[in-house]
Design goal:
The chain is of the alpha/beta class. Helices cover 30% and strands 31% of the residues. A 7-stranded mixed β-sheet has the order 6-7-8-3-9-10-11, with helices on both faces. It has a 4-stranded antiparallel β-sheet with strand order 2-1-4-5, covered by helices on one side.
Length: 294
């Protein structure tokens, strides 16, 4: 069974007398233990999707399930349990992740206190998590004594404290340099492999696709493309990573062509389709151009 399922997900916000459609029929499936990125520009619907999957917002229509929880019908009490036990969060702003007056170890212990874990067990588990993220030797340091990358690694340990099924990381490297960002992704990958937690990175940066196994691009409130990465051994015995981009076809037959494809062929309004034995041809509407004098 999929860990995350969205089927024809719709979210409409009312702003004054206007209705804003943030998600319009989005489909998504994420398997247990996957390490993926959801990429989208501002206004694409990415943040709305995160709020729904994180249990902080409710969809207008459609289906949204995470780890068997139906997010469209949770009671307030069930929603609180869901946020505390099923999902974990790492935010871009470190001030949202760490309390400044607590040490790294105390920050990790805090959610464990809320869960009622005993003192000795709590401290041992907190130290274990800090070691997992490479921060075991910095357990006694407060946030202002840590670098930005170290703070984010502690934040990952905090997010893992409740043993979540899914870890959401919102722009986790947005304030970090390239080298430190690579270290954060290595930490997320380690948590993904060693703990089996499903990791979903939400970002506007398409280069993140190089760090994850699958990248899902969102445009205009719908999934538009997926990029799959896999390793292969060539004839010389060397490992190489191959990335393939696919357009996403929904159940009604709609798909979104990548913008650079549309620009390259100057596609707009309508296109001509030709069905071949093993593929579909997509062509510009030359007749329409001639009528418009182009």
């Amino acid at each position: 069974m999929s860990q995350i399922v969205c089927d024809n997900l719709v979210k409409i916000y009312k702003v004054a007398d206007l209705e804003v459609v943030a998600l319009q029929g989005l489909d998504l499936a994420v398997e247990p233990g996957e390490f993926i990125a959801i990429v989208g520009a501002s206004g694409s619907g990415k943040s709305t999707l995160q709020n729904i999957l994180g249990g902080m917002d409710v969809p207008t229509a459609g289906k949204a399930e995470v780890a068997g929880f139906d997010l469209t019908s949770l009671t307030p009490k069930e929603r609180t349990i869901y946020r505390r036990s099923i999902v974990g969060f790492v935010w871009q702003q470190t001030t949202r992740n760490l309390l400044p007056y607590l040490t790294a170890e105390e920050n990790v212990e805090l959610p464990l206190i809320l869960e009622g874990m005993r003192g000795t067990d709590r401290r041992e588990y907190a130290v274990e998590l800090l070691r997992l993220v490479g921060m075991g030797e910095r357990a006694g340091h407060k946030p202002d004594q840590l670098s930005g990358g170290e703070q984010q690694r502690v934040a990952i340990a905090i997010a893992l404290a409740n043993r979540p099924r899914v870890l959401f990381a919102d722009e986790p490297t947005g304030e970090l340099d390239t080298e430190t960002a690579a270290e954060i992704f290595a930490t997320l990958r380690s948590a993904n492999r060693e703990l089996g937690v499903t990791v979903v990175v939400l970002t506007h940066d398409p280069l993140v696709s190089e760090q994850v196994d699958r990248t899902i691009a969102i445009r205009d409130g719908r999934t538009s493309t997926e990029t799959l990465r896999r390793s292969e051994v060539d004839e010389l015995g060397d490992h190489q990573v191959i990335a393939e981009e696919f357009a996403v076809l929904d159940r009604t037959g709609r798909l979104q062509l990548p913008q650079d494809y549309m620009d390259a062929l100057d596609l707009e309004r309508r296109v001509r389709l030709e069905l071949e034995p093993d593929h579909i041809g997509v062509w510009p509407d030359k007749h329409n151009r001639e009528q418009n004098g182009e």
